[in-house]
């Protein structure tokens, strides 16, 4: 029921396993199963491709008591025409409103009765429906996720009720300066390209949305070759496959071939350099940044190291310069966005309005220094350590494990174990980081501001300088 | 570096262990160690009381790769005089600014280098300093946590820099309508009592804060008998104890007796019924509620069931009536606050300003129906299921495990295993819930609103009716 942005970590983890195959998921023979990683107690990660084109990837984690199920659909806001902006997210809401088998209330009651979580999120390039339950409730989780994704009714009455809820969600985003800022920044950086539009759509597009058009979008886009089912936890691959056959067996008769991961090179029209949202906030919120790398770019590991050392932790350049040395802001950080054919590297800071000029000036100085000199060996080593630790520590719950394998399959088709990812991070050198910084940090800068400024002219000169 | 409110779940988890003792931590013989729970591979939860009065509680979790360390101090915002409101939280910031052994930058560098997390939060009744690291980095985590808590310098220069950061945090809270609303609601409900004051303090009190007074607060309050060290993960109790002796060995020579958990009965002066923060937000944000139970009240298990069924999940009364049937709000939920000698039961909703009257009316109707009739057997059963599942699913990472044992020791001294907690939930009957609802939901209601209303008179009549 929420939206999601692409996070910073490059596709991450299992634990101590070794890779067994590099066969790509979308090229794997339909009807076959392959093992991708061996774990502590046997086969840990396995993938089956069904004749229908549905891919099923599982990770068995001994010792845990839960299971996470996610159905990933390669449909997101970038697939919408501008008139129906927000359709993918609106649809995601609507699917929970009732199916051929259950009312919305029954869906909620069944998951609440076992204390599980059933939810979904929509991003620019995919939508994910997921459940997190005790291991013994895996059949119920599979049933509920498949029910909402495959058998939703999208009744006109529910469509109208849900319009109000989606409009509320837009209003809520507008009241959260950081969320609003993020959307404004992508608007500034990516201009008219579909990636630059908010996942939620606009009040206008949601107000105009037509039920039959949305239902058509559902029937056309939600096909098995566009889907990956990911399951992680105290589970067994063969058991999951039996449940898949039970839940969507008849649909599996339709023959299909998995859709390849998105890739290419986005053509992004010229964009605005600055977007200002005038708002009567206590803090001024600034995000600035450049176009970065796409997710298939091999330099993404170096980019993640650069990001960590630049603004990823308390010891990062930006945190030390802005907050620790000068106390100018409570929060300051950088982040990376990776899309199929484009990407972003951005910096956020929130501060008192009368300090915005100083903050923008310090950020600009840091970026130009790093573009010129790269980062010190110790900083790069710390950035690598930060990614290594964060990768493993971020995979303690089954939901994170499920996301790792599901998103990885949808985005790459290629399985990368945690060990392999760690090895790729280890290979990054200070020279790689310096070369990349020299390239990226000299690209044109776009910026967005949310704060108490009526016009762009009211912004401090340093904000204008950073984008000039 | 953040503030925290008391959450909803009654002290939770371990996994399959059985309790070995009910000895209270603050009455345990100094210099002794007891085992509290046996787990899958031997002793799982153990507690030592040192001659200094420091309590150390650990949970060994086989199969994980990480460790979480938390030093819990029985000092919070309720211990502040009104003139120094925010002192506990300001101090928590200051302790990271440098110690006798490390500069602030070195502290940040050492934790970032291993990809760990080092942070702290301040609540009304306690402050917690914690680290989450790979298991092999446990000695570093213990070293860093102990260094900032015991050896901070609180230099006047850093004190001034950090004042700006804390003021930024207040401004950030003011830009987050839900956070602001929460503080306003406690102000409305608990009036002049220290529990009703914001943890962050005010611009005034932070602006006036004096370095020497804060340093005095530190030296007086941060004593070993007020502290619990909790460690969970792939760790061994004896190893932890060796590290404790190494890190704070000399301090252990001072003899002390653990301070008993807070308890009693708060005398809360009469309070305002309504607090309005006029703000130019897109949504109107409403929180209303009553004084509830203290954390020692045996009815707290029934309260958690009531809370779950009333507004805890998608199938709850409030979610169904407000969002699903009528689409009036995106978010609506209830929550429980448990303090040593007081408590709250509250309801939140965010909606378009022109729907606020309808939302308040629906909430009022739901509350009066539940006060009169209680909840159905199926709803109570679902509420119990929700708590059971949520309890176990919420304990997958070592940080949650560490919090469970640390907070439990500080708040109760009495160890409750997950199995025992589950048993207490199971015992709750629909009649218990109905009796409690009849009592609590007829208490005087206080409310807070953040939204585009200049005066209380501008609020819809239903808001005034709900508190009348």
Automatic annotation (TrEMBL), chains A, B:
Domain Peptidase M16 N-terminal: 55-202
Gene Ontology molecular function: any one: metalloendopeptidase activity
Coiled coil: none
Lineage top rank: taxon: Bacteria
Region: Disordered, residue numbers: 1-38
Domain Peptidase M16 C-terminal: 209-387
Name of a matching Pfam family: Peptidase_M16_C
One record GO biological process: proteolysis
Residue ranges with Low complexity bias: 7-18
Family per similarity comment: Belongs to the peptidase M16 family.
Name assigned to this protein: Putative Zn-dependent peptidase
Organism this protein belongs to: Saccharothrix carnea
